[in-house]
């Protein structure tokens, strides 16, 4: 019995599905490389930060004022000023004096100051926010040691009060590219399976009426 051949071409919808799947696969691969280069490598370096015991040595405000950007609506944006507070601590691990920063983000934003307040339109509110932080470190915070975090290779003269949120960064570096790869692969496989089933169904239909 002669084998029945069925020619089957992709429909327009199937062609679009395969293109979408391939696009998602390519995006997943590219984003994985880009995110790993931009986020993963710096994050792995940040994860080398070690905890240490810190004690406050001195707290002072410098004369220089710094700018911050505030937003007060969709079309409302501007700059205001805040004073610079510097909290110097003794790092027990390196036995050296270091400048304390609230977290990694603020260290990058302003490496000269220990605290960058949430930017308000009113300069006085920014000053009051910094003064509250100053009152803490000259009062309650100065009387006891606390855990700080430092990286001897990257920033030996700086320590962080709050550790970096490395787990969340790593999750975003890996999760979304993998999701894009899986979704794209699933779309391509489902489209190919649908094509194969359609070919078999058509072959059975022709065999039945032949």
From TrEMBL:
Matches recorded under Pfam families: CaKB (PF03185)
The UniProt record lists the keyword Cytoplasm: no
GO biological process entries: detection of calcium ion
Transmembrane segments annotated in the record for this chain: 20-42, 174-198
Name of this protein: Potassium calcium-activated channel subfamily M regulatory beta subunit 4
GO MF: calcium-activated potassium channel activity; potassium channel regulator activity
Matches recorded under InterPro entries: K_chnl_Ca-activ_BK_bsu (IPR003930)
Compartment list: Membrane
Organism, scientific name: Anguilla anguilla
GO cellular component: voltage-gated potassium channel complex
Membrane protein topology class: Multi-pass membrane protein
Presence of keyword Ion transport: yes
Keywords from the named record: Glycoprotein, Ion channel, Ion transport, Membrane, Transmembrane, Transmembrane helix, Transport
């Amino acid at each position: 019995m002669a084998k029945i051949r069925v020619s089957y071409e992709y429909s327009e919808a199937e062609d679009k599905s395969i293109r979408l799947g391939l696009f998602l696969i390519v995006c997943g691969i590219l984003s994985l490389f880009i995110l790993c280069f931009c986020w993963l490598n710096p994050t792995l370096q940040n994860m080398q930060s070690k905890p240490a015991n810190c004690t406050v040595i001195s707290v002072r405000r410098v004369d220089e004022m710094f700018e911050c950007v505030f937003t007060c609506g969709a079309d409302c944006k501007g700059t205001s000023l805040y004073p610079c507070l510097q909290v110097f601590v003794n790092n027990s691990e390196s036995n050296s004096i270091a400048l304390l920063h609230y977290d990694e983000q603020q260290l990058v934003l302003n490496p000269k100051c220990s605290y960058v307040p949430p930017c308000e339109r009113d300069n006085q509110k920014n000053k009051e926010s910094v003064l509250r932080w100053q009152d803490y470190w000259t009062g309650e915070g100065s009387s006891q040691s606390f855990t700080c975090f430092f990286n001897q290779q990257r920033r030996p003269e700086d320590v962080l009060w709050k550790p970096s949120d490395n787990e969340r960064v790593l999750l975003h570096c890996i999760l979304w590219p993998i999701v894009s790869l899986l979704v794209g692969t699933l779309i391509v496989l489902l489209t190919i399976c649908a094509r194969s089933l359609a070919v078999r169904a058509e072959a059975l239909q022709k065999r039945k009426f032949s």
